[in-house]
Amino acid sequence: xxxxxxxxxxxxxxxxxxxxxxxxxxxxxxxxxxxxxxxxxxxxxxxxxxxxxxxxxxxxxxxxxxxxxxxxxxxxxxxxxx
Length: 82
Hints:
It is built from 3 helices and no strands. By secondary structure, it is mainly alpha-helical. The longest helix is centred in the middle third of the chain and has 23 residues.
């Protein structure tokens, strides 16, 4: 995946993660995209370790893995901030 693809996937996954786990995180567009990109990397890494696959593009398994990673990152982020 290219750089722009990671940003678009990160934004999509960040929005999904904030929709699933709403809260007062703040940050706006930039923080949502950053959260999603980091979450996609975490999800891909964990998926590879567990043998579930990796984030390879815009398909359902990749988006699911990336969203789980983004939820983990969002949870940790909220725990650190509070």
